[in-house]
Amino acid sequence: MDITDAIEHVLDQFGMEPKEVNEGWCFDFAEQVCRLVPGAQCGRFQRFSDSDSWELFGSYEPSDNFLCIIEFRNRYYDSECAEGADRWASLPIFQRELETNLENPTKLT
Question: How far apart are CA 73 and CA 62, in angstroms?
Answer without folding.
Answer: 29
